[in-house]
Structures are given as C-alpha cells and as structure tokens.
Design brief:
The chain has about 425 residues and is α/β, with parallel strands linked by helices. The chain is built from 16 helices and 13 strands. The strands form 3 sheets. An 8-stranded parallel β-sheet has the order 3-11-10-8-7-6-5-4. Helix 4 (about 75-85) runs parallel beside helix 6 (about 110-135), helix 6 (about 110-135) runs parallel beside helix 7 (about 155-165) and helix 9 packs parallel to helix 10. It binds flavin mononucleotide.
Length: about 425
C-alpha cells in the first residue's frame, strides 16, 4: 500500500472535531438550523427557475466554489459552501501552511530530506482539511478536492483525497488523462476535469471512454474571465472566441449528442459569474451549474488572511493583469506593487534564466517550473512562496490571483450564505451595496 493511501490519522479525526477558526454563522448554529438554511437555499433556487445539479447521486443547488490555492480554499471555506447544499472545493496544494505544527516540522528543512518530509506534511494537512470540511458540511452538499495536473505530487494528492473519502476530485491545469486509472477503486467518487474548449472535452471524453469511465461533470472555465492559471496556451489567446460560453457550451453538447452520451455529463461554467441572471443565462445555454472563485475568496469563511480578501475585493478592473506563470500557463492576478515590479523586471529575468541546482523551496511543487528549469519564456518567480505570502496577507510580496469580473457586494466581505442567497434568489443582504446588480 502506498503511503498516500493510508486511512485518515488520529490527528485528522481530532482536527475534524476542533472548533472552527472561521466565523461562518453556520458553525455556531444548530444542525437543525443549518439544515433549514440549506433547505431555504434549495427552495430559493427552485423559485428562481434554476435547475439543480445532480452529482455523485446528490441533488445540489447549481453553484460550485472553485478550488483556490495556495490555501485560499481549505476546509473552512469548502465546508461552509457544502453546508449550503452546494459544492465546496479544497485546493490540495501546500496545505501544511494552515498547520503550525506541520510548518514547524518542515519549514526549516533543506536538501534531500526536505522533499519527502514536506510532501508527507502536505498529505497529512490535506487529510485534516478534508476532515474539517466534512465536519463543517454536516453531510450536506458535496466536498471536492482540486488537484492541479501540473504539480509534481498530483498522483499522491489524488490518491490521498480518494482514500480520505472525498465526494469528488477535480483536476485542472493540464489534461488528467490518467485519472480513471488512479480512481479505479473508487467508482462512486465523481471525477471532474477542468477544460476550456470543446476540443479539450472531446479529447478527455474519448480517452476516458476507452478506460470505461466518463467524467461525472466537466468544468468549462473561461480563460478571459477566470482567476489563477488559465486554460489557453498563451496570453495572446485568452480572448479567443472559441472559449466564449455561447460557443463552447453548444459545441460540447453537440459532441455529447453525436457520441450518444447526451444528458450524462453536467457542464459547470466558470469565470465571471456574479448574479442570478448570469446563472439563468448559462443554464439557458446548457450549463447545469456555475463555478465561482473570486466571489468566494472574499467571503468571511474563506481560509485566507483578511488582507488577501481586501486586495481582491478592492481591485479595480484596471488593476487586473494577465501574465505567464512559472507553470508556463497564462495567469491572472491583481497588479500589486510586487507584481508590477516583477513584470517590469521579467524580460531581464527571462533573458538570464538558467537551470538551477535545486528548487527554491526544496520540494519541487511543479513538475515543470520556469524558474528551476531555466525556461526563458516562462515566469521567473517562486509560485509557492508568492501564493503562500498572499494567502498569509503579505501585500508587499504576495501574488494575488483574481478573476476579471466584478464582485456582487463590491469591496465588502460577507458570509458565504449571503453570497448564496444573492446568487440563487437575487436577495441583496441588508447593508450591502448593489455593486453588480
Ligand atoms: C485566488 C485564486 C486561486 C485559484 N487557484 C486555483 C487552483 O489552485 N486550481 C484551479 O483549478 N483553479 C484555481 N482558481 C480558479 C477558480 O477555481 C475558478 O474556477 C475561477 O476563479 C472562476 O472565475 P471567477 O474568479 O471569475 O469566479 C483560482 C482562482 C482564484 C481567484
């Protein structure tokens, strides 16, 4: 048995019982009240004319909280969203950052011993966060784990998530062609690739069909709108018409029809969604649900530092910038002074790019890294460190991923439940400004 396949540890079980750090009202109310709130949200969605999302045998409100690394969507946020009867997603990357005991064991390590110890700490942290999310969710909704195909520990993150009993594994930043094999002993766990165009969907479905499994849903993420790493080959392609929802959704549905799998794979549209009207529009194009990132990143329950939320929520459209990340993919973030300086230095850094003797952080978070591998057209910064700084609220050195869209409550930080009520019923909470209404 691989180390990654062990059952949840005693610490993970204790973690699930520990009082929550988040301020979600659902954490302090009784199980009955939480259930009532989730039921109300489902009724709100129905009364708004939305259809529910059926996934892993559950009927859910048609909203998915996208995975956000590093540590932005951990167990607190994912659990709070699932508690509302929706899909909450934990990002699996470098979760030890949320666990002082694991950081104390690994932060100072260097050399050959560092990598194995850091990877083990991250798997332990992932198990703890899954347990935490499930405890907060109280059996409602669905708890998913997001794993980037581009990270070197992709396989172990997937195996450990499955062993910990997550409801769904969601894979982006690359084609997860091997996911059916990795999950062959877990037929009831939903497998969900994140793709951006019809060609990518066809490729994955055709390959998976040969392995006897279909995706349980597909996230269609729009590279011109979403935050974080984007599903286009280069920055110049982000605005390509083939990514527009009114092109890609009908194309994918036509492919499903031609392939005889119509109605079997729900589509989840991601990027720039901020209102009930957006959800209605996307459902009319054939999407079953929507996925949001940035709007959930600025909720009270989001696991990142308040300064992280402030930077995202206060960014104006002209503050948001596209660039090439160290993973070689286009990315979108807030142009903070740190990012602005990096982008000014980038041509010089790229010119002098060279292969390094070892990864900055010793654990090689990415399978291929522009900085470590000396790739002269890729980003030249340490992504784990920069995203970690952002999540911890260091505005002077963090990289703040953000989508391009406006936020429902402008610069306000509000609870997940307020966001859900706005999305599903158009209910603007008392005191909120109608920023995007
Ligand atoms: C801070 C941040 C971090 C993100 N990290 C990831 C990630 O680790 N993996 C991933 O698949 N998507 C990631 N995303 C994308 C989101 O899951 C989501 O699909 C996208 O942001 C949706 O667009 P929106 O922000 O306009 O709602 C990230 C987005 C943000 C804003």
């Amino acid at each position: 048995m691989l180390a990654a396949e062990v059952a949840p540890t005693l610490t993970q079980i204790k973690e699930a019982r520990r009082p929550m750090r988040s301020t979600c009202p659902m954490h302090t109310i009784s199980a009955d009240e939480a259930q009532q709130a989730a039921t109300q949200l489902a009724l709100l969605a129905r009364d708004s004319g939305l259809t529910s999302l059926t996934l892993a045998g559950k009927h859910l409100v048609p909203v998915v909280q996208g995975g956000m690394g590093v540590g932005v969507s951990a167990g607190g946020l994912a659990g709070a969203v699932a508690a509302c009867g929706a899909v909450g997603t934990i990002s699996s990357v470098d979760l030890r950052r949320h666990h002082p005991d694991l950081m104390a064991q690994t932060a100072h390590l260097e050399g050959a011993q560092a990598k194995a110890a850091i990877n083990a700490a991250n798997l332990e942290a992932l198990g703890r966060e899954i347990a935490r999310a499930r405890a907060v969710a109280g059996g409602r909704g669905l708890v998913a784990v997001n794993v980037m195909r581009a990270v070197s520990e992709y396989e172990n993150y997937v195996r450990h998530s499955l062993a910990c009993g997550v409801d769904a594994v969601v894979v982006g930043a690359g084609l997860p062609l091997d996911l059916p094999e990795l999950a062959k002993d877990h037929p009831n766990t939903a497998l969900i690739p994140i793709l951006s165009d019809a060609r990518g969907v066809q490729l994955v479905v055709r390959k998976w069909e040969k392995k006897g499994r279909l995706p349980d849903a597909v996230v269609i993420e729009h590279p011109r709108l979403a935050g974080g790493h984007l599903g286009a080959a280069k920055v110049a392609d982000l605005g390509d018409r083939r990514f527009d929802f009114d092109v890609v959704l009908p194309e994918v549905l036509a492919f499903f029809r031609a392939a005889g799998i119509e109605g079997r794979i729900p589509l989840i549209a991601a990027g720039g969604v901020s209102s009930l009207q957006d959800i209605r529009q996307l459902q009319s194009l054939g999407a079953s649900a929507v996925q949001l990132g940035t709007a959930f990143a600025v909720t009270r329950e989001c696991d990142a530092h308040p300064e992280f939320k402030r930077i995202l929520a206060s960014a104006r459209p002209e503050d948001i910038v596209n660039f090439t990340s160290v993973a070689g993919l286009p990315a979108r973030a807030v142009r903070t002074p740190w990012l602005d300086k990096y982008l000014r230095l980038e041509p010089r850094l790229q010119k002098h790019a060279h292969v390094k003797s070892h990864c900055n952080m010793w654990f090689d978070c990415l399978a291929q890294c522009g900085l470590r591998d000396g790739k002269g057209t890729w980003g030249q910064f340490c992504i784990d460190k920069s995203l970690g700084h952002a999540m911890e609220g260091h505005t002077d050195k963090g990289l703040f991923f953000r989508g391009a869209g406006t936020l429902p409550f402008g610069s306000q930080i509000r609870p997940v439940e307020d966001l859900m009520r706005w999305l599903l019923g158009g209910v603007m909470p008392a005191g909120a400004t109608e920023a995007a209404a």
